[in-house]
Recover the amino acids of this structure.
């Protein structure tokens, strides 16, 4: 049990003792907590010295490490920028070489002669020899109309590039080439014979050649696909979206990546020529594992130096802290001696020669020991009395803090809510009481006010509770806590509701037939000499209906009272069911005629005798027929069906009313239970079906409700036949 709660409900003297004890206890326990070996001042001092050394080392080392790392990264990116420029120069140099090669071939005097001679075989052999000597992948001669006269090499060269320039050309769906064109004239220089095209394919060999010249690994990208690379397996540095952005902006993009545990810096730059803009991109990647190694070494040096300094500082700090805290350790030993001494033994503090502050503290501790002992004795008596008082209270007591967490749960509260007391501490009170969070805090407003709430217990039972709440402040806290007193008024509330429900409905049930009876009798008295036989019959039939309704109501009331009091009994004997049904129908016929309802009877050819109490059985059939008439529509048929089930006879009354939901069918046989909304003709007190159930079960049968196909309900019950109940003719009570 919470000590603060015991102090709060105890006497004034007990509460004063609690406050004094709380103050002294906090003083001593805080001092002991600060100076015990587990968390000693010596340890804290060592930790502070080491932390100070580490902070100083890191304050100097981390900026230095950051500057070194930043400078190394700048140098690496500078190399990447140089690689970008060198690669562009290499591509420009290759284009210039192609222009020169095409010009050299166009100036050969043998070439015009071979063209004029029309010898294509010799021309092709001549071009192949020139291609090999000039290290070209393709060499071709075109006539003035652009038709190929002869070509050499594996590269198919297009026509149409302006003379004296080189540029990129798409030679197939996925291939790209560098191509240069030069005009071809006759040896006299008077007639244009056509053009010479020289080209190299942009493939892996070309990429390796550029990589050898620049010292950087490259890949050539056409569209979003890499068509040439100097690497065996190039790392995926750029996404298609990045590639598209470079095409649009015509500016290089940079990225950092790690591929197969190797870090890389990468740049994606556009390759442009005068004709096609930027038909291709070059991806340059540079491994920077050496840069990462240098950074790791710098970080390792920083960590080692910090560790060395920390170890040396710890040793020096330990010597200083030991000298500084020696008196405090002796004082801690003295405080523990206080805890181990007998009640009247005075503790001795060996502080001679020590500072006067330590001697004063030792005396104060001894005085505190004596005061604490006396206060604890008084508090123990208050605690014992308060515990016995609170736990003996029949009502439940619950306390919770500002966060709605339960801090105390009495035995009475555990009994009311079905929650074990030890399982609810520090649990949300809304969860234990099954109430919304918004309804919790208003429970204590106003203080001392009463509220009534509905809860669902831990065992699933619905209960009604009367709550009284107030706010208290624990002695060792500045935060208010809420105290709730719970009283279970479920039975009282249920009795009150049933009483109100019964009075309201029984008044209506009596008033309706009595009003009809009074009106019919008054009409007879005033006009008896003037009424025709038909009118007299109609008025007498109305009187009969009212009297029958009153008789059924009184019978149900008497049977319900007898059942409740344990005086209910039946007397079974062999009975011809046809006779009982005929009497019940004769009783109900005026009601059926008034509502223009027809009764259809279905029974076996040979109806067996049943073992039953005829009076009770008639009451069952009348109650069920009255229900079917009341809830069924007017001018419709009610079916009464009898079925032979070997040892049992099943009787079913079938109506065409609105039907009954499946989850309400079993509950309808309880007292005072009705279906949903009723009309003025359907109001009742909810006793008929409970009486039916008691009578049927008293006969050893069963009762139930089924759904009628097409709408409506089937109320049925079973009765044992004479053979099944042979020899059992005694009274049932």
């Amino acid at each position: 049990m919470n000590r603060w709660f015991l102090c709060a409900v105890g006497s004034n003297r007990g509460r004063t003792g609690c406050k004094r004890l709380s103050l002294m206890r906090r003083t001593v326990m805080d001092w002991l907590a600060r100076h015990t070996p587990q968390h000693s001042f010596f340890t804290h001092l060592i930790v502070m010295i080491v932390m100070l050394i580490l902070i100083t080392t890191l304050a100097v080392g981390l900026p230095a490490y950051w500057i070194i790392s930043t400078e190394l990264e700048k140098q690496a990116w500078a190399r990447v920028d140089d690689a970008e420029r060198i690669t562009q120069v290499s591509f420009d140099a290759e284009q210039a070489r192609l222009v020169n090669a095409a010009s050299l071939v166009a100036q050969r005097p043998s070439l015009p002669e071979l063209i004029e001679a029309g010898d294509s075989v010799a021309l092709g052999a001549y071009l192949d020899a020139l291609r090999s000597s000039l290290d070209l992948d393709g060499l071709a001669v075109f006539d003035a109309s652009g038709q190929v006269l002869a070509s050499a090499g594996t590269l198919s060269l297009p026509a149409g590039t302006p003379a004296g320039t080189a540029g990129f050309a798409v030679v197939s769906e996925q291939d790209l080439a560098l191509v240069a064109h030069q005009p071809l004239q006759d040896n006299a220089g008077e007639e244009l014979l056509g053009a010479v095209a020289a080209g190299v394919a942009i493939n892996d060999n070309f990429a390796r050649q550029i990589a050898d010249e620049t010292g950087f690994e490259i890949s050539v990208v056409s569209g979003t696909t890499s068509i040439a690379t100097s690497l065996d397996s190039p790392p995926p540095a750029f996404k298609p979206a990045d590639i598209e952005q470079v095409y649009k902006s015509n500016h290089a993009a940079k990225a950092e990546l790690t591929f197969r545990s190797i870090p890389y810096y990468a740049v994606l730059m556009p390759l442009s020529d005068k004709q096609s803009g930027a038909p291709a991109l070059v991806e340059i990647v540079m491994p920077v594992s050496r840069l990462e190694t240098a950074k790791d070494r710098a970080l390792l040096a920083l960590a080692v130096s910090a560790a060395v300094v920390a170890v040396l500082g710890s040793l020096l700090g330990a010597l200083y802290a030991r000298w500084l805290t020696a008196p405090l350790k002796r004082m801690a030993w003295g405080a523990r001696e206080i805890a181990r001494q007998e009640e009247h033994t005075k503790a001795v503090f060996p502080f001679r020669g020590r500072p006067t502050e330590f001697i004063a503290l030792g005396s104060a501790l001894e005085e505190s020991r004596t005061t604490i002992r006396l206060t604890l004795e008084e508090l123990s008596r208050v605690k014992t009395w308060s515990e016995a008082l609170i736990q003996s209270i029949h009502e439940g007591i619950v306390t919770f803090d500002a966060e709605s967490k339960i801090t105390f749960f009495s035995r009475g509260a555990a009994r009311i809510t079905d929650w074990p007391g030890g399982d609810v501490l520090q649990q949300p009170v809304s969860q234990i009481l099954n109430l919304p969070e918004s309804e919790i805090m208003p429970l204590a407003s106003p203080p001392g006010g009463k509220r009534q709430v509905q809860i669902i217990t831990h065992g699933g039972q619905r209960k009604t509770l009367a709550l009284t709440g107030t706010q208290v402040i624990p002695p060792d806290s500045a935060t208010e806590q809420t105290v709730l007193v719970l009283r279970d008024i479920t039975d009282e509330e249920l009795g009150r509701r049933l009483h109100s429900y019964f009075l309201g409905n029984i008044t209506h049930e009596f008033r309706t037939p009595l009003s009809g009876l009074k009106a019919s009798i008054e009409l007879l008295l005033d006009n008896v000499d003037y009424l025709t036989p038909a009118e007299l019959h109609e008025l007498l039939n109305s009187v009969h209906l009212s009297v029958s309704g009153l008789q059924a109501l009184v019978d149900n009331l008497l049977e319900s009272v007898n059942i409740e009091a344990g005086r209910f009994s039946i007397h079974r004997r062999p009975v011809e069911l046809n006779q009982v049904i005929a009497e019940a129908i004769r009783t109900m016929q005026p009601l059926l005629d008034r509502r223009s309802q027809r009764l259809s009877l279905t029974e076996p050819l040979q109806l067996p005798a049943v073992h039953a109490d005829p009076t009770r059985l008639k009451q069952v059939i009348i109650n069920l027929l009255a229900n079917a008439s009341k809830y069924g529509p007017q001018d419709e048929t009610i079916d009464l069906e009898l079925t032979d089930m070997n040892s049992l006879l099943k009787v079913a009354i079938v109506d065409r009313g609105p039907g009954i939901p499946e989850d309400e069918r079993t509950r309808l046989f309880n007292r005072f239970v009705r279906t949903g909304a009723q009309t003025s003709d359907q109001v009742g007190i909810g006793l008929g079906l409970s009486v039916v159930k008691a009578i049927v079960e008293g006969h050893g049968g069963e009762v139930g409700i089924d759904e009628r196909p097409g709408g409506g309900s089937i109320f049925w019950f079973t009765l044992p036949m004479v053979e099944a109940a042979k020899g059992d003719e005694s009274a049932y009570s």
The two ends are 52 Å apart (CA to CA).
